Amino acid sequence: MGEFELALRKSLESNNTDLIYMTLFHLERTLPSMDEFRYVLNREPMYAEAVNLMLLYYRATKSSGSPALWTDVASAENDLLLSFKTSDVEEKITALKDATTKYTNAKLPAHAKLAEEQIELLQEQGKLEEKPENVKRRKLVGLSISNTMKLLLCDSKYEPKLLPLVAAFAKKFKVPEKRLYRVKIKALAETRQWDALHKFSMEKKNPPCGFKAFAIACLEEGEKQQAENYTARITSVDEKFETLIHLDMYSDALQLAIKLKDPEKLTSVRNLCNDDNICNQADKAAMELGFVS
């Protein structure tokens, strides 16, 4: 099975549609059974593209080849399309349940699982809409996981009890910690919840996205002093230097470059800064450190 998967992976990585089709048709002819073909297509999420290409082929040619597999998949795809088109929540869920059944019949468990997860998301969003903490009565059904979290985090300005609800929502849908941090930082900064942002920054000694994300979010909202405060907490010298440059804090960036005796960082300050005084200091430091003669 390894050689078949390798061929499929390489063809997909090539982004050459003709090569992908050639590989798929070869697999379909060569593998002992359709079950084994399905098994290969379900091994990796990236193979979903292969499934879609085969579906397009059999739709376009109206071929009778592999009818049991591709008829179910085509019908499931139509159900998915219906779930996105309709605004009625129950109709969305019914269509997704039908798609789940058809993907299961086609022995495509990865696709079935994705449809099931979408059902679970819609149901959870519906519950959140009815929560008393949803003081703005936001419509959440149909939003992405990230947008659902961001909207509720923005509204935590008016109802702090939304914060634990978002944490539970993120846990339920296995949101990566780094992604949760980035969404929460941006939401709190955009709604100018500076105390809440500071409290959040204290939860971990080393946040998964670093303090640079806090600093940049503050700067984007015009809070340079807040941004500088978070920059001061960065322990990685490379990350601190990058953040100082991002904040246009060239004097501090220059001092860090001199302290580190780093010629590349000195050059970065010299090339990016328009302040003649700082540029002259950078030139002087480069000479004193022996980087130029």
From TrEMBL:
Endpoints of the signal sequence: none
GO terms, molecular function: actin binding
An annotated GO BP: intracellular protein transport
Residue intervals of the Vps16 C-terminal domain: 1-277
A GO CC term assigned to this protein in UniProt: lysosomal membrane
PANTHER family per UniProt: VACUOLAR PROTEIN SORTING VPS16, VACUOLAR PROTEIN SORTING-ASSOCIATED PROTEIN 16 HOMOLOG
Protein name: Vps16 C-terminal domain-containing protein
Phylogenetic placement of the source organism: Eukaryota, Sar, Stramenopiles, Oomycota, Peronosporomycetes
